[in-house]
Protein: LLM class flavin-dependent oxidoreductase
Organism: Nocardioides oleivorans
Amino acid sequence: MQLPDPALVVLVGASGAGKSTWAAPRYRAQEVVSSDALRGIVGSGPHDLDASADAFGVLETIVEARLRRGLTTVVDTLGLDPTRRLAWLAAARAAGLPAVVVLLDTPEAECRRRNSARDRPVPAPVLAAQLKTARDVRRQLEAEGWDLVAAVAVESTADVPVALPDSVPVSAPALPVGDRTSSLGLRSVLQVSRFPWGEEPLAWLTDIARAADEAGFAGLALMDHLIQVPQVGRAWDPIPEPWVTLGAIAGLGTGLELGTLCTPVTFRPAGVTAKAAATLSALTGGRAFVGIGAGWFEREHAAHGIAFPPARERLDELERAVVTMKALWSAGTKSYDGHGVVLPETTSYPRPAGPIQVVVGGSGERRTLRIAARHADACNLRTTDEAELARLVGVLHAHCDDVGRPRDEVAVTVLDLPVVGRDRDDVWARVERLRGRTAAATYAARTLAATVDGHRDRWARLAGLGVTTVFLATPDLGSPEDVLALRGLNA
Ligand code: GTP
Ligand code: MG
């Protein structure tokens, strides 16, 4: 059962229905606001009924404060009082969060049986009154306007949603399943963007690359920057030259494809990039790729004495670069003249040991995606918004149609920068470490923070949108253990 997240989740059910038991493995302890637990804090214990009014006062404050911050809040009370329910619903609406009810629809006899087995059973008449209220609650809930009312069949393992919002079924296309293609039909490439390698750069790189290989990644990509970019780190953090670094990784003999994401076209003449990639292909037995883009970080150019022409010129150069590289990698040494590129000969050895995929990075609709459609093997888009991704794929395909290129010759790849945690607690610990001054809920939403399973669900949707390869860069990748923790994404 997929519940929205973040969201207000109101548990509803009589004593012993299994509300607390349902919530415990699914949510962090801090996300569950329980009237019983608060009775134990403001009163003598979870069953101190004299403390109820104070406990609910604190509960309302906590629920309101968490929702206002956009944080998931699970309200663990009986949930049978319509006035309280509507107040929580209003608070979620005010915060712009989805509001759902999880109805623990446990048979009455089972609630009674569990109740009598407890250390402190609820008095029988009290439970009878709860069960009576619970009989009508489903009808009331449907009238209250919740985004989702999900009934949990507690005795079976199946969760049965009774009222789902409109949803579009995702049909996964039949993709060719090849080497290192996951059961989702995707290949993933680990993009390494930060290099906390301490005193031993080569040892660190070796460990990271071996871990990526072991974790089932299809490839490893390095950023190509002359100064670390502010999105990733500080200007004085190390950011190594990628082709030299990939050469070192090539020496490890892993099964990884190796390349850049992305090389700015401004850094090297295209012929030199073609030479570097062909050399890497020769050294890896044909497992090199080139991600290439127009470049954007003006500061690194100025600092290194490299020209940074206007965008239109960089895009012209990007197109010529792809054409030049392809010409230099093709068989023979004949001259080349096309698409604004004139080469008197295409003598360049070693030739690549296999096809070198050119991935054009960037989502520019008019030029970048047209260059990808016309000349490249793949485009590389950002993923934070699935609707936007679907739209950009449409733009790419329109360019393909327009230039007369079969759509399936241009693979759709994405750059994914999510926070990935082992479990919900780990996800939120990472968010808390990484968020800086950004509000936790905002940072979590921006980085799509989730567990491996959560990201697998999302990646399945990406595959449904036509994505074939995910370039994955987590913002806190520091050790081989961090890489191995991503293994589930490649299963
Ligand atoms: P209150 O807090 O009193 O309102 O009850 P609750 O709805 O939170 O019920 P809770 O989760 O505490 O579960 C009550 C008892 O039922 C506990 O002893 C649980 O171990 C047991 N229980 C809960 N869910 C299940 C279930 O799915 N199967 C079985 N067999 N027992 C369950
Ligand atoms: Mg409980």
Observations:
- The chain is about 40% helix and 15% strand.
- Confidence is low (pLDDT under 50) at residues 156-177.
- The two ends are 21 Å apart (CA to CA).
